[in-house]
Amino acid sequence: MQELINRAKELLANGTVARVLGWKAGDLPYNPEPAFFTTAEELDNFVYNGFCGANLSKYMIAASKLEGKTMVCLKPCDTYSFNQLIKEHRVDREKAYIVGVGCKGKLSIEKVKDLGIKGITAVSGAEMSDDAETLTFQTIYGDKSCAYADAMLERCHVCKGKEHMVYDELIGESKDTKDAERFAEVEKIEAMSPAEKFAFFQKELSKCIRCNACRNVCPACSCRKCVFDSTKFDSAQKANVDSFEEKMFHIIRAFHVAGRCTDCGECSRVCPQGIPLHLFNRKFIKDIDELYGEYQAGADTDSKAPLTNFTFDDAEPSIVTKR
Amino acid sequence: MQRIGVFVCHCGSNIAATVDVKKVVEMVAMEPGVVHAEDYQYMCSEAGQAKIAEAVKEKNLTGIVVCSCSPRMHENTFRTAAKRAGINPYMVEIANIREHCSWIHKNVEEATEKAVILARAAIAKVNLNAPLFPGESRVTKRALVIGGGIAGIQTALDIADAGYEVDIVEKTPSIGGRMSQLDKTFPTLDCSACILTPKMVEAAAHEKITIYTYSEVEKVSGFVGDFTVDIRKKARSVDANKCTGCGVCQEKCPSKKAPSEFNRGLNTRSAIYTPFAQAIPNVPVIDRDACIKFKTGKCGVCEKVCQAGAIDYTQQDEIVTQKYGAIVVATGFDTIKLDNYDEYAYNQSKDVITSLELERIMNAAGPTKGHLERLSDGKHPHEIVFVQCVGSRCSDNRGKSYCSKICCMYTAKHAMLIRDKYPDVNVTVFYIDVRTPGKNFDEFYRRAVEEYGVNYVKGQVGKVIPQPNGKLLVQGSDLLDNKQIFKEADMVVLATAIEPEASVRQIATMLTASIDTNNFLTEAHPKLRPVESPTAGVFLSGVCQGPKDIPETVAQAGAAAVKAIGLLAKDKLTTNPCTAKADELMCNGCSTCANVCPYGAISYEEKEVNDHGIRETRRIAVVNNALCQGCGACTVTCPSGAMDLQGFSNRQIIAEVDAICR
Amino acid sequence: MSINNEEFRPKIVAFCCNWCSYAGADLAGSSRLAYPADVKIIRVPCSCRVNPMFILRAFEKGADGVIICGCHPGDCHYSTGNYYARRRMTLLFSMLDYMGVENGRTRVEWVSAAEGVKFSQTMNEFVEKIHSLGENVRLGDLRCKN
């Protein structure tokens, strides 16, 4: 972390960048938050640890409009999002100085809590320099510990790899965290009966409070004005007026990011109701891979997205009933 | 709120027999926005239209719903009526209660109920309609023809004869194209040069035609009626204004080892050259890769011998920028490479040749001065085998899936000409099918068989094996006799598949014209608009659209010219107002819409916007109304809904959905 | 659930492209090829104009089935529209299936202007299918139903 801070100070001092986009400590030991830093003094609050799950690439949309370059810290998976934003002309590559930061898997406080660890006052073992094997917590109920992997976000178990897709320089080590199949959960649902599927999603989606956290955090959901806030679809005033509303919102949201979603998993991470929203996006990714050939959004900046492309002998929609 | 009038048509008994029109009138009168509702025998009649005009005047209508037959039938009628009555024609919607209702349902109650629902949907839509106005765009009265073969020449001549300026851009040093390489043409056997060169001369002499040879289209921008094109005139190293075409430079040029493109590499040419004697313009070019002066700095013979002082080694490429109203693509074809067809030993034996090479051999100006001889040893052949469908109608991906269409006929021609001139030569043709549809074509083929004794064998050639004695062992099958054939031949001629000229891909990209998997340009409609590209203002002439022979090419060239003339004859183009439109405050500038637009109608501008007090420069999609055809692909791909289709807007369609599901 | 004992009358929305399928429906009409009145057609310029929002909206408002008809692949008036529509609808239908919605409630059919018979047959089949599936309860607002 100190290496990152030193480098950030250096870049600020020599005028390469006008500001730094990273994370600062939150009011709890496990909730660092995205922050801009413009002076060396401010950078003393800079943190980068296992809880820094936030994907900062979306902030670069606004930062691209600012005077001068922004040093932005991007984890390997975040760089996919950044590439996708370049492709969609939402960020200016020239306005970003990308420091690719190492990643040993990001942590989910919800998972920690699920392990029965509550009342946390301090955490150790989550620093960048740690080996990401064990986490120890000081809690008001005494010291507790757990395996690092057990507290990791779902997305890190199905990690796309620790290679940065776009960067100016790299700082920090990474560690391979993939230990599960990316589509296993989707396949599990696919294998259910229609009634079970319906019950599953009904249960999950009925938790939705339409807080829009998923939408606000999603780097692909970066529309200036969302259709669900727009008068142009007659869908704006409809928050939670009927039982289908959440389903419609989540289907359309997933559809709008289909072929653009890099599977960064931020939607699930931020959902206050713990809805596994990534299951929608990942279903589309799986279908696209199977029907139209493997495609990873954000792996490049010039490929044709699956939904803006076609082949003459694409599968007919009736394939859905045949599978 | 609109003031809507609803007019329910009886269509005699066509509607009224199954739909209770009075009931429909009664029901729709209660719909929001409806201030007038009536029924009439025949709404489309003069009297019916007069009723609309009357109601517009009396009730101050702003929108009209006609419940009648299909909009495909009378939408225009009612739009015109509305216009006459002083309402914007796009404030009219039709509820199709005949084809989609009264004609298919028997139960009056059901049909009436459905008619009411269809009317409600139309009313809901009209409530959200807005007046639309067709735009206008100007037309530059000049056409560009890309490609100077027979297709391009014919198109250019036809357009020029109609009184419009035409430019031909040809990438080789002379116009003439493939046809200039042919010896004789089927089925009349007239000499190709004799019918082509007069057209070449006519094109060159035409006061309305400008020819850019040794030139390529570099950049295309703009849209139908108003294209801007950059043409790269490659450096000829010869001043066309000074050159007299005497030919001394070519004679004296010491570098004579470059393969002659015109003779398909069967012989060589000098570094300074015209492709063939009748080239137009008759101005040579220096092939800088072959020229000793350019390679070593020493030589300069051509400069010394040129009396006119036309040689200019310092000449540079030149870019000519010109505006056009219409563009015709006539880029033609080439034969496929035979690298995937080792079994025919094309690369192993000089005596295995393509049909186009045979054309050059048979031609008096060709590498053998028109004498039929083996290229390996110059000997007169006695046994010639023709192999059909080499790379055509190919089921694997070595060749082309399509039929090259011309091979059956030219092979019959070759066989006949050889038998006529050299009765001592035996000719065998291996074929899959003989396809000779066309005027006098089958008669021609039968003459080859019946009068000239050409031996046609139905079957494929499996292998051609060069023999130590210089002969070629042809191993084939005779499907009709069900036996293997082994034949020693002196020459083997391959009817090689044709494919679009390689440069067409690049040109199609520049024009945003679509091409199919075989690189043939796609028509706007395969049956009804065969010479138009889906991109407005771009027309297709000749083989670039699909395999065809000379008469077909000339016919299509004429058709493309007529379409271009039809466009150039207009001073202004009226554009369809039902086009896409981006809401600039909502647009993300993400380019997704442009990626799906089949017409290249969407571009992006850096535009200053005022978004509720925030002033900033944003990248915003702009739809060119002259290009947009209103399909709506962009509207669905746009995640924010910034892109909408006028006349079929998101809100309008949703209103219809709601009305139907109510 | 229905409070009276009336026979189930499904609400079916058919989106038809202007150039092929709408004309096919017209031909079905002029050929007097009957199909149930439950089908209501909305004219769109091209199948690629059909936004998934429209389909979900229809279900939300109580539709029991939605069918999209367009030109046959390769015959699109706008040359490529139905290819995009095909991908979009395939993914959308797959998602609905994944969420446990009966996949018979949605359908895409390519109907040319000459296929009046096919149009009528398709609609008859589709209505029959919706009858067999019964009222749509998994999509849409339950309160719309009674």
Structural overview:
The complex is a heterotrimer of chains A (323), B (662) and C (146). Chain A has 323 residues and is an alpha/beta fold. Chain A folds into 2 domains: 170 residues, no CATH class; 139 residues, no CATH class. Helices cover 31% and strands 14% of the residues of chain A. Chain A contains 12 helices and 9 strands. Chain B is an alpha/beta fold and 662 residues long. Chain B has 5 domains: 123 residues, Rossmann fold; 177 residues, FAD/NAD(P)-binding domain (3-Layer(bba) Sandwich), CATH 3.50.50.60; 58 residues, no CATH class; 167 residues, FAD/NAD(P)-binding domain, CATH 3.50.50; 67 residues, 2-Layer Sandwich (Alpha-Beta Plaits), CATH 3.30.70. Chain B has 18 helices and 34 strands. In chain B, the strands form 12 sheets. Chain B has a 5-stranded parallel β-sheet. Chain B has a 5-stranded parallel β-sheet with strand order 20-27-21-22-23. A 4-stranded parallel β-sheet of chain B has the order 2-1-3-4, sandwiched between helices. In chain B, helix 12 packs parallel to helix 13. The longest helix of chain B has 19 residues. The two termini of chain B are 20 Å apart. The model of chain B has no long low-confidence stretch (mean pLDDT 94). By secondary structure, chain C is an alpha/beta fold. Chain C has a single domain, classed as Rossmann fold, CATH 3.40.50. In chain C, 38% of the residues lie in helices and 16% in strands. Chain C is built from 4 helices and 4 strands. A 4-stranded parallel β-sheet of chain C has the order 2-1-3-4, with helices on both faces. The N terminus and C terminus of chain C are likely disordered. Classes of the chains: A alpha/beta (323), B alpha/beta (662), C alpha/beta (146). Chains in contact: A-B, A-C, B-C.
